[in-house]
């Protein structure tokens, strides 16, 4: 009888305006994601943020939503999204990120030589152009599978000090897993870049569609080829400690409209 009463109560409640994806993904902070509703027109609106194309999907088969990546460098306040010529505003809140102090024996990884600085610059340009790709396909799933099963060891956005000197904040999420663990693609995608970089070590970029891009680094082994299409769960490579790493772990970046955002959002593990 009580169950029936509860069911009736649920049915009597008005339909919730927010859908499943909005509840999961809308974390509008620097390094987070803003979900902006775009109406229920017959065709997908075209949206841009800071001059870059933005992911647009249909939520619950009803309304269009823009899923906007917010760069870590954005100050809290009002932001503007352009959708089919209209200016839509959304608000970015504040978030405090923790600090992490790391000691590296290899001083070259803290203050690289001029030759290595040249190499780093070249490698950065290559990776930046991969993040700027915008392919038209809609991602197979926005609720991602975890690429590996294991505890989180370092969160996204942590301010990092190497041997006491501040460097770029942590642009991804680390999992503590043993070397050799297979890394699985969290959604279907295409391999758009493979590299062996000074900081990131052996690295694979996977394009999930519409500017949603995963990057896995410090790999011991790469199991894919450039241009390869991966199914959801397809093995990208193996966990390792190549590049600037203090030990084997899996580092995963997620990028949306060329903004590196917190991967924890996409696996339901976001901490405000
Ligand atoms: Zn990391």
Automatic annotation (TrEMBL):
Highest taxon above the source species: Bacteria
Extent of the signal sequence: 1-17
One MF annotation (Gene Ontology) recorded for this entry: metalloendopeptidase activity
M23ase beta-sheet core domain residues: 169-263
Domain Peptidase family M23 N-terminal stretches: 27-95
Protein name: Murein DD-endopeptidase MepM and murein hydrolase activator NlpD, contain LysM domain
CDD domains (UniProt xref): M23_peptidase (cd12797)
Keywords: Signal
Keyword Signal among record annotations: yes
Gene3D superfamilies noted in UniProt: Glucose Permease (Domain IIA), Peptidoglycan hydrolase domains
InterPro entries linked to this entry: Cell_wall_metabolism_enzyme, Dup_hybrid_motif, M23ase_b-sheet_dom, Peptidase_M23_N
This protein's record includes keyword Signal: yes
């Amino acid at each position: 009888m009580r169950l029936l009463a509860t069911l009736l109560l649920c049915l009597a409640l008005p339909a919730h305006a927010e859908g499943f994806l909005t509840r999961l993904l809308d974390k509008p902070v620097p390094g987070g994601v803003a979900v902006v509703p775009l109406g229920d027109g017959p065709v997908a609106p075209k949206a841009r943020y800071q001059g870059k194309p933005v992911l647009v999907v249909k939520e619950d088969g009803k309304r269009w939503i823009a899923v906007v990546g917010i760069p870590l460098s954005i100050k809290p306040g009002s932001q503007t999204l352009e959708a089919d010529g209209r200016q839509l505003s959304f608000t970015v809140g504040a978030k405090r990120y923790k600090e992490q102090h790391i000691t590296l024996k290899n001083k070259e990884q803290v203050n690289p030589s001029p030759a290595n600085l040249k190499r780093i610059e070249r490698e950065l340009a290559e990776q930046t152009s991969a993040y700027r790709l915008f392919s038209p396909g809609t991602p197979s799933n926005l609720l991602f599978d975890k690429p590996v099963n294991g505890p989180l060891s370092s969160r996204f956005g942590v301010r990092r000090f190497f041997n006491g000197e501040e460097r770029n904040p942590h642009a991804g999420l680390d999992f503590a897993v043993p070397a050799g663990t297979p890394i699985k693609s969290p959604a279907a995608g295409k391999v758009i870049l493979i590299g062996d970089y000074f900081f990131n070590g052996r690295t694979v970029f996977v394009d999930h569609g519409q500017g949603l891009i995963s990057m896995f680094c410090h790999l011991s082994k790469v199991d894919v080829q450039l241009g390869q299409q991966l199914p959801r769960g397809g093995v990208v490579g193996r966990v390792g400690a190549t590049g600037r790493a203090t030990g084997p772990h899996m580092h995963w970046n997620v990028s949306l409209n060329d903004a590196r955002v917190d991967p924890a959002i996409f696996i339901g593990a976001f901490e405000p």
